Amino acid sequence: MAAEYIGRCQEEKLRKMPVDLVKDAFGCDIIILREPNGASAVVHLHGGQVTSWKNAQGDELLFLSSKATHKPSKRMRGGIPICFPHVRNLGSLEQQSLVRCHNWTIDPNPPPPPTNGIKAYLDLLSRPTAADMNIWAHNFELRLRVSLGMANLTLTTRVKNIEKVKALSFNFAICTYISVSDISEVRIEGLETTDYLDNLKCKERFTEQGNAITFDGELDRVYLGTPTKIAIIDHEKKRTFELRKDGLPDAVVWNPWDKKSKTIADLGDDDYMRMLCIESAAVEKSIVLKPGQEWKGRQEITAVLSSYCSGQFDRHVASDG
């Protein structure tokens, strides 16, 4: 009865907002956010994962694999998954994907509404299950707000340590799969002169030398202490994604290219051409919370039909939040 009452309260809350709670074609619970100008976003309750973001013209801005698994119990490749408590290359797969296997709920005690006039937003909550505690024995609350604007999508995350005695140490990433026309026509600006760990060379440390990052083969790097603003420029579509982040000092840039794609079961052989994975992350240094403390991280993506040059990006480094 309690679960049914909570469910009714959640549905009643959604009815008062430009948000729809429905099931997709595969029977999964999804929430659709709609902006008056026609933009929309889709969030799967399983995994708390954004799986679609469309602009006012109906163009899909996020990549979803052609072999994505549309099952409530499986992880879905693409969109914007949340990686907590460990990100890729840190810890076991179960640890990396802990909250991606959760059925998130609508937050019953969300933060105050956005103050910038945005009305299409959603607050979700994830807590560890008994099975989770066997994998990673820490008690936490993870809150996620997804906010949809006219040309931007914002994810705000909050992690609270609800342990009474021990500290909570974790890494975190907002893993964004951007849809691009042709990866060989894409460039990333804003990371020049930044140090990075090359995962293709045993995490050896280098400094980015070019004016921009371009793609002509597999790339898997962790950029350290990055600026708060990064631009992804798709020359063929004449579209720029401006990524702004706070509390997430690092950035992971990944594209598997052709050979690696063929080894990934839930990725189509040619999907690499249409995707760029960029993660706003805290990778190099773990976030440590004392009992009762809370951490906040934020990522905002804006899509515009224009191009940027490197000189327009400042070198302000993201704060620790």
UniProtKB/TrEMBL annotation:
<comment type="similarity">
    <text>Belongs to the glucose-6-phosphate 1-epimerase family.</text>
</comment>
<dbReference type="GO" id="GO:0005975">
    <property type="term" value="P:carbohydrate metabolic process"/>
</dbReference>
<dbReference type="GO" id="GO:0005737">
    <property type="term" value="C:cytoplasm"/>
</dbReference>
<protein>
    <recommendedName>
        <fullName>glucose-6-phosphate 1-epimerase</fullName>
        <ecNumber>5.1.3.15</ecNumber>
    </recommendedName>
</protein>
<keyword id="KW-0413">Isomerase</keyword>
<dbReference type="InterPro" id="IPR025532">
    <property type="entry name" value="G6P_1-epimerase"/>
</dbReference>
<dbReference type="GO" id="GO:0047938">
    <property type="term" value="F:glucose-6-phosphate 1-epimerase activity"/>
</dbReference>
<dbReference type="GO" id="GO:0030246">
    <property type="term" value="F:carbohydrate binding"/>
</dbReference>
<dbReference type="InterPro" id="IPR011013">
    <property type="entry name" value="Gal_mutarotase_sf_dom"/>
</dbReference>
<dbReference type="InterPro" id="IPR008183">
    <property type="entry name" value="Aldose_1/G6P_1-epimerase"/>
</dbReference>
<dbReference type="InterPro" id="IPR014718">
    <property type="entry name" value="GH-type_carb-bd"/>
</dbReference>
<dbReference type="Pfam" id="PF01263">
    <property type="entry name" value="Aldose_epim"/>
</dbReference>
